């Protein structure tokens, strides 16, 4: 199955939620597990180059994130996931000049202080520290660049055109939860299997008010993706599935993507926060603290091929 992107409870996407460095955390996913970051993230932009006459200032970075101060660790910028306990648990680069007296507001419990803020400053990858250069604000008052909404354009889609007469159930007797489970199992057993997901967009129920109706097998399009011979795969699926079906072709097998993710999890990825596999898009996703210079992405493209691994940065570029 493809990745599950919370909070929308659809079998379609996987969230990159892993707690930051030096912290506990939890991942959420389906076929692909999340990996935690390295103990000492060192990546992204690297150390600024120097010359005999100049010492360029490091680029400014921004983050909209939780700042958490646990005993013995100092104020940390939580760029990965946050475990929603009380107090919460998370971690990341230490903010070396943090002052709670200047923070707009914060919560505290059991000796831990935390709050959600917009911070602007510089990131020292080698030391894994963040240095504030502007006053801290609330996220609501922040007017700089913001991260792209992860839900935008990331929902489950069906690449097949609608059949003549529209999407319809062909055999109600084979459009049950049991038939759906059997079909997904048959798909995963194919040597050409690249992924599967459920497109519930045609279901007229309100997922907020009637969540129990969203998994009606008769009101979803079962999507199966293979790397070749989609027609043969569709014949196999139709042996057990009588509902709406789209079998598409392309990308990489799920096994290939999971193998790449596993290989990356055993390497020291600079500033790694989390990883996942999205079989709908046929990519391995990596989230790191800072790769805004694109060096890590370029390395991944060279090793695995363009676009097979997608690197995103938790820090945002910022310009005065």
Explained architecture:
Residues 22-55 have a biased composition (Low complexity). Residues 22-57 are annotated as: Disordered. Residues 1-24 form the signal peptide. Keywords: Signal. There is one protein chain. The chain has helices at 177-188, 230-238, 254-265, 295-304, and strands at 61-70, 74-78, 94-95, 107-109, 112-124, 129-132, 193-199, 221-226, 244-249, 272-278, 283-288, 309-313, 316-317. It is an alpha+beta fold and 320 residues long. It has a domain at 61-132. Strands 1, 2, 3, 4, 5, 6 and 13 form a seven-stranded mixed β-sheet that branches. Helix 4 links the parallel strand 11 (283-288) and strand 12. Helix 1 (177-188) runs antiparallel to helix 2. The longest helix is centred in the middle third of the chain and has 12 residues, at 177-188. It is elongated, with a radius of gyration of 23 Å. 40% of the residues are buried. Mean pLDDT is 84; it is low at 1-52.
* Rounded radius of gyration (Å): 23 Å
* End-to-end gap: 43 Å
Compressed to H and E, one letter per element, the order equals: EEEEEEHEEHEHEEHEE
**Parts with pLDDT < 50 across at least 5 consecutive residues:** 1-52
Structural class estimated from helices and strands:
alpha+beta
Helix count from the secondary structure assignment: 4
Number of strands: 13
Please give the largest β-sheet: 7 strands, mixed
Q: Quick check: average pLDDT? A: 84
Shape summary: elongated
The amount of beta strand, in percent, is: 15-25%
Q: How much helical structure, as a percent, in the residues?
A: 10-25%
């Amino acid at each position: 199955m493809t990745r599950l992107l919370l909070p929308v409870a659809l079998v379609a996407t996987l969230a990159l939620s892993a707690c930051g460095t030096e912290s506990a955390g939890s991942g959420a996913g389906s076929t692909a597990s999340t990996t935690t970051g390295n103990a000492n993230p060192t990546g992204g932009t690297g150390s600024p180059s120097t010359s005999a006459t100049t010492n360029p200032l490091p680029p400014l970075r921004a983050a909209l994130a939780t700042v958490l101060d646990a005993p013995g660790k100092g104020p940390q910028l939580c760029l990965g996931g946050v475990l929603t306990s009380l107090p919460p648990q998370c971690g990341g680069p230490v903010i070396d000049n943090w002052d709670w007296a200047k923070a707009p507001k914060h919560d505290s419990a059991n000796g831990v202080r935390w709050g959600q803020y917009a911070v602007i400053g510089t990131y020292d990858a080698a030391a894994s520290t963040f240095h504030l250069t502007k006053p801290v604000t609330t996220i609501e008052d922040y007017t700089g660049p913001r991260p792209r909404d992860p839900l935008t354009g990331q929902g489950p889609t069906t690449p097949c055109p609608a059949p003549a007469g529209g999407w319809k159930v062909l055999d109600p007797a084979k459009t049950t939860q049991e038939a759906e489970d059997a079909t997904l199992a048959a798909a995963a057993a194919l040597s050409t299997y690249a992924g599967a997901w459920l497109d519930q967009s045609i279901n007229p129920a309100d997922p907020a008010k009637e969540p129990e109706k969203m998994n009606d097998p008769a009101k979803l399009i079962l999507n199966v993706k293979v790397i070749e011979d989609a027609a043969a795969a569709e014949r196999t699926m139709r042996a057990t599935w009588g509902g709406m079906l789209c079998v598409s072709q392309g990308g990489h097998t799920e096994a290939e993507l999971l193998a790449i993710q596993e290989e990356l999890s055993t390497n020291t990825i600079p500033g790694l926060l989390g990883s996942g596999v999205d079989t709908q898009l046929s990519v391995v996703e990596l989230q790191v603290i800072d790769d805004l210079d694109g060096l890590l992405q370029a390395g991944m493209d060279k090793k695995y091929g363009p676009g097979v691994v997608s690197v995103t940065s938790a820090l945002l570029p910022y310009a005065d």
